[in-house]
């Protein structure tokens, strides 16, 4: 504050001092030139007039011949002329009165009044332009000029017809005194004026700098963040208006800082809460991305599995159709076997009368029974294959139910179809089991028939009794073959139903595969959107972190203010 105060005061005082010095210089120059003008216009003309009158009187009373003789060095004439010059000098109150002899471009004092102050006899004087001009013009009254003795006005008069000049001069040194006094007076007045003005400038600067110093001190407090202090100034001048404006600015700044503090607190709290929520949302989005990725992987697996199931169902359908056709063939063969058994029964009834043909009939029967055994073994193999297929269908039905449960709403229809397929597989398994039991019985009975045929062949003699037993056996065989035919027909019908169901299952599997592929496409789109949302959430989180940091920085800055 002191430096600022001194700086402004110094500027004001230097400004005032420079102004006063400039004014004093101008006034001094003005007075000096005015004095010179007054002297030149008033004093010098008076000097010239006095010298002109004096010279006229001196020339009138002086003997020119005597003056020329004195100039030639005549001592008697010199004394006379010097006495005359002394008298005239006293009469006209001159300072110097003398005769000059001009020869060889020299001016020599030939005679001088005894009271002359600056000249002596035979003194050589500088041949000036004024003297030369006087020699040319005959006379010359000079202006005021400076010599070693001071200011002087001289009148030169050449004695007609000679090189003698009468010179009369008056001392004007008082003019220098007047000028010197004027200069000193001006200097003193300037110094006094400068001192007074500096004192006034000091007082004036104090009146300006003290309020400014208070403003500066208050400004530093505000700059340091202290808004608790108010500045009070009285008056209506510009500084007071500035102080009031500054006080209003401080109040507005205090209000603004308070509002900024509140706003920054709210922004910091809000951004922190929003950042927390965004972090939670980011974690949720990451989990969603992971879930979608898992779903995508599962969907791809389901799609692949569904495609494989579709191909498997096509193969199963083909196999079931083949089983159905094979079962139909078996049914036809069993019908043929039944017809053969009836024929054998008829032959057994005729065996009583046709014992001779028993052996042949027995051999034919044996061959038929062996064929039946072979065909029953083929049917058994087919039934084993059907049992395996039924197991695979059950496994496929179970897998289809699991995949339908994973698919949710989209797999509900597929789950119903899978259940129906499971039921059909269970029915097929039961029918196959019954066919296997019947075939086992047929194999056993056929084996017994073979053994019986062997016994008949070996014991033809007891054939009559055994023929009757064979007839009974053929009756039972016919019944069993009819039962086997019915069982095979049931198996064929069940196989056809399974074939139809497998076709429906295949269609459902194809539809499921198509739906799964569409779901996979949608899941991939969802995964892509989830990745994009995750990136956007990361950007939002980063923006909110930066905003939170800015709010905290603003809080730190504004907290420096004291309100």
Automatic annotation (TrEMBL):
Cellular component GO terms, alphabetically? plasma membrane
Q: What is this protein called?
A: Methyl-accepting chemotaxis serine transducer
Every Methyl-accepting transducer domain range: 277-513
* Signal peptide limits: none
Family in the record: Belongs to the methyl-accepting chemotaxis (MCP) protein family.
Tell me one GO biological process term: signal transduction
Q: Which residues cross the membrane?
A: 12-34, 182-202
**What species does this protein belong to?**
Paenibacillus nuruki
User: Can the keyword Membrane be found in this entry's annotation?
Assistant: yes
Claim: Protein biosynthesis is one of the keywords in the record: no
Q: What is the lineage of its organism?
A: Bacteria, Bacillati, Bacillota, Bacilli, Bacillales
Identify the residues that the record assigns to the HAMP domain, covering every copy. 206-258
């Amino acid at each position: 504050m002191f430096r600022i105060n001194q700086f402004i005061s110094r500027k004001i005082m230097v400004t005032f001092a420079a102004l006063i010095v400039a004014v004093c210089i101008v006034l001094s120059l003005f007075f000096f030139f005015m004095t010179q003008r007054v002297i030149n216009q008033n004093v010098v003309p008076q000097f010239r007039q006095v010298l002109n009158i004096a010279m006229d009187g001196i020339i009138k009373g002086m003997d020119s011949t005597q003056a020329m003789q004195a100039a030639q060095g005549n001592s008697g004439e010199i004394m006379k002329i010097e006495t005359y010059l002394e008298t005239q000098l006293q009469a006209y109150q001159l300072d110097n009165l003398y005769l000059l002899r001009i020869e060889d471009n020299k001016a020599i004092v030939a005679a001088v009044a005894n009271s002359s102050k600056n000249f002596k006899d035979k003194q050589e004087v500088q041949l000036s332009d004024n003297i030369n001009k006087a020699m040319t013009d005959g006379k010359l009254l000079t202006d005021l000029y400076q010599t070693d003795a001071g200011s002087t006005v001289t009148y030169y008069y050449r004695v007609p017809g000679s090189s003698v000049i009468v010179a009369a001069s008056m001392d004007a040194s008082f003019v220098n005194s007047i000028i010197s006094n004027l200069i000193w007076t001006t200097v003193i007045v300037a110094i006094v004026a400068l001192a007074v003005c500096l004192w006034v400038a000091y007082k004036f600067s104090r009146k300006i700098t003290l309020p400014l110093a208070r403003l500066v001190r208050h400004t530093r407090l505000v700059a340091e963040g202290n808004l608790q202090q108010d500045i009070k100034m009285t008056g209506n001048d510009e500084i007071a208006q500035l102080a009031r404006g500054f006080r209003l600015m401080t109040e507005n700044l205090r209000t603004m800082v308070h509002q900024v503090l509140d706003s920054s607190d709210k922004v910091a709290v809000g951004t922190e809460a929003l950042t927390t929520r965004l972090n939670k949302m980011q974690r949720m989005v990451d989990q969603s991305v992971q879930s979608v990725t898992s779903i995508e992987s599962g969907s791809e697996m389901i799609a692949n599995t569904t495609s494989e199931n579709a191909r498997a169902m096509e193969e199963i359908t083909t196999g079931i159709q083949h089983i159905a056709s094979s079962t139909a063939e078996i049914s036809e063969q069993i019908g043929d076997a039944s017809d053969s058994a009836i024929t054998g029964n008829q032959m057994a009834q005729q065996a009583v009368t046709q014992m001779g043909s028993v052996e042949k009939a027995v051999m034919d029967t044996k061959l038929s029974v062996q064929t039946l055994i072979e065909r029953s073994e083929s049917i058994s193999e087919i039934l084993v294959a059907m049992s395996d297929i039924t197991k695979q269908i059950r496994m496929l039905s179970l897998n289809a139910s699991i995949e339908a449960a994973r698919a949710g709403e989209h797999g509900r229809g597929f789950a119903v179809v899978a259940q129906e397929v499971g039921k059909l597989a269970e029915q097929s398994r039961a029918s196959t089991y019954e066919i296997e039991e019947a075939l086992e019985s047929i194999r056993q009975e056929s084996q017994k028939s073979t053994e019986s045929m062997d016994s008949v062949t070996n014991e033809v003699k007891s054939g009559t009794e055994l023929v009757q037993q064979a007839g009974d056996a053929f009756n039972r065989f016919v019944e069993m073959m009819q039962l086997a035919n019915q069982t095979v027909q049931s198996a064929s019908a069940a196989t056809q139903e399974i074939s139809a169901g497998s076709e429906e299952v295949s269609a459902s599997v194809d539809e499921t595969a198509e739906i799964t592929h569409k779901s996979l496409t949608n899941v991939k789109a969802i995964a892509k959107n989830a990745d994009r949302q995750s990136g956007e959430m990361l950007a939002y989180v980063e923006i909110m972190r930066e905003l939170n940091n800015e709010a905290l920085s603003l809080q730190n800055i504004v907290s420096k203010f004291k309100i």
